């Protein structure tokens, strides 16, 4: 098995959700990026049969926190393939699209998949933010032969309508620029309902606890590899504090949600 290749910014992990570089550092890296033609809506490249998986993520602390869990989960289900997972940049999709450094990493990295998180949305539902930058990321990934996967983030604790609201925003994006969509929030809603005694959030009610991060990783793993995560003998995924029964339940929830809400058209 390939040695883990996980690059995470400690600064981002300790920062708030919108995190990222300082304004001065960010400004130094900014340049005018040529926009991708959104009139052309290419089909989504299918890289699930790649001989090795090279997975890039962009987004805020939700994306960064997922990196080690996703690495472990994919390695668990496809141990015969080398896997690398890296967060390329931290922030919202519109800010990141103008970051030349992030663009360079994406163009030069030989990636098979790009997970896109950080679309701005209004928690009150009263403000509509542009989705053009997120569409640009999708189109750029497809131009490079990379499978784009939208990451509608999980709902905050107690916000029972938030998952469907955020999912709807991302479905609207994919209707304009074809992309896979990971039904993360819908899986979290199902898991919270069926496993009420398991904490899916950290104490802040926003970020994912180990159980929540594992659930999100199971969803992405099945999308990326096309290997159902609820089949075969249940065994403990390395480096988690969750018991075998909990992991088995989460894998069943993940696969069932993907049956009901397929990620890729």
TrEMBL record:
It comes from the Bacteria. The keyword Nucleus does not apply. The keyword Ribonucleoprotein does not apply. Keywords: Signal. InterPro entries: SGNH_hydro_sf (IPR036514). Gene3D superfamilies: SGNH hydrolase (3.40.50.1110). GO terms for molecular function: hydrolase activity, acting on ester bonds. Residues 1-23 form the signal peptide. This is SGNH/GDSL hydrolase family protein. It comes from Pseudoalteromonas luteoviolacea S4060-1.
């Amino acid at each position: 098995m390939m040695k883990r290749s996980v690059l995470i910014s400690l600064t981002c992990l300790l920062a708030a959700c919108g995190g990222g570089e300082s304004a001065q550092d960010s400004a130094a890296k900014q340049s005018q990026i040529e926009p991708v033609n959104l009139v052309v809506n290419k089909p989504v490249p299918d890289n699930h049969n790649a001989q090795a998986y090279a997975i890039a993520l962009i987004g805020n602390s939700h994306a960064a926190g997922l990196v080690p869990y996703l690495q472990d989960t994919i390695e668990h289900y496809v141990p015969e393939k080398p896997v690398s997972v890296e967060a390329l940049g931290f922030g919202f999709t519109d800010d990141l699209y103008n970051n030349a450094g992030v663009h360079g990493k994406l163009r030069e990295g030989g990636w098979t998949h790009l997970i896109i998180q950080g679309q701005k949305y209004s928690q009150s539902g009263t403000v509509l933010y542009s989705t053009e930058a997120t569409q640009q990321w999708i189109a750029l990934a497809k131009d490079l032969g990379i499978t784009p996967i939208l990451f509608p983030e999980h709902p905050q604790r107690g916000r029972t309508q938030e998952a469907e609201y955020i999912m709807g925003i991302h479905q609207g994006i994919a209707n304009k620029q074809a992309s896979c969509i990971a039904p993360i929030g819908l899986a979290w809603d199902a898991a919270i309902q069926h496993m009420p005694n398991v904490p899916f959030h950290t104490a802040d009610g926003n970020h994912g606890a180990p159980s929540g991060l594992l659930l999100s990783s199971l969803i992405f793993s099945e999308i990326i590899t096309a290997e159902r995560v609820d089949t075969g003998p249940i065994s403990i995924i390395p480096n988690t504090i969750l018991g075998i029964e909990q992991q088995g339940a989460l894998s069943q929830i993940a696969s069932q949600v993907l049956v009901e809400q397929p990620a890729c058209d």
